[in-house]
Amino acid sequence: MNLTMYIALLLGFALLLKGAGWFVDAASSLARALHIPSLIIGLTIVAMGTSAPEAAVSITAAFSGSNEIALSNVVGSNMFNLLAVVGVSSLLRPALVEPAVLRRDLFWHLGSTLLLLFLAYNLYLGRLEGLLLLLLLAVYLLFLLKNARGSNSGSEPEAAEIGLPKQLFWLVVGLAAVILGGNLVVNSATDIATAWGWSETLIGLTIVAIGTSLPELATSVMAAYKGDSSLALGNVLGSNIFNLLFILGLSCTLSPIAVLPGALCDIGLLCAVAALTLFICRNDGQISRREGALLLALYLLYTGWLICR
């Protein structure tokens, strides 16, 4: 039985990596064919697709009443995305920050995180707070769609000439592989962690959060390797905003969440990391390898602190 869990873990990793490659290739091709900037694709389709495991875990947890996992999964995933995913991607290839990210997405990201801290300050996230988060997501998506239309050259899309059906096929296949791989990793890793005697909160902030964020890691690393750093950074920011506004918004709308004092501390740390990311990006317009190494080191320190506490 133990061997089966480890085999499922390895199979999940394989599906994540292969599926991420297919997904990034198809998404980038569609962006070029439809004259949509790859940053917009990263902030919407790729981000929402790679956030599917987080959505599955948190929404299922809300339905079953395990709201502690729903909140810790979102907070832990966003921390992993900002520190580990951006850190590893920047180590592979320094990420150039596009002007649209500086003007819009980084501020939306920090604002959404600060709003969560404000809403959770009374140690309760109710249905009203959930509806507010969902409303803000709708506003954010409207901004993205408006920008996408404004960046369109106005000419007819060339997707049919370069194989739109084939691109859509690999987009769907890649997304399916990413979701299936993420589920395999989460389920097997949770079983292994439970067998090791870890607490539910620690599992939610580490194993489940890392497992559900592996699609973001695989997709962003693959995008950085292929030289599309805007897609890599856009994927992380879009995924984090989607996690905060949609997944957590829907979760507490379905079932109000009682916020533990420790979770409030984690949200505060997430705000500090979001502010640090904004500062790094605005400082020189890129995330260098040295700054990527710093982010990765901070995540290792954060993980060690979680285990020790």
Give me some keywords for this one.
309 residues; mainly alpha; two-stranded antiparallel ribbon; 11 helices; 4 strands; 84% helix; 3% strand
Give an overview of the whole structure.
- With 309 residues, this protein is mostly helical.
- Helix content is 84%, strand content 3%.
- The chain has 11 helices and 4 strands, in the order H-H-H-H-E-H-E-H-H-H-H-E-H-E-H.
- The longest helix is centred in the middle third of the chain and has 33 residues, at 164-196.
- It starts with a helix and ends with a helix.
- Residues 153-161 have low confidence and may be disordered.
Gyration radius, rounded: 18 Å
Helix content: over 70%
Q: How many β-strand stretches?
A: 4
Show unreliable segments: 153-161
Number of helices, where a helix is a run of at least 4 consecutive DSSP H or I residues: 11
SS class:
mainly alpha
Give the averaged pLDDT, no decimals: 81
Sheet-strand content, in percent, reads under 5%
Oligomeric state of the chains in view = single chain
Q: Main β-sheet, in a few words?
A: 2 strands, antiparallel
Element order: H for helix, E for strand: HHHHEHEHHHHEHEH
Side by side, the strands of the main sheet go 1-4
Q: Separation of termini?
A: 31 Å
Shape: globular
Quick recap:
This protein is mainly alpha-helical.
List the topology elements.
Blueprint: H1 2-33, H2 38-50, H3 52-64, H4 67-92, E1 95-96, H5 99-120, E2 124-125, H6 127-151, H7 164-196, H8 200-225, H9 229-254, E3 257-258, H10 261-284, E4 286-287, H11 289-308
Antiparallel strand pairs: 1-4, 2-3
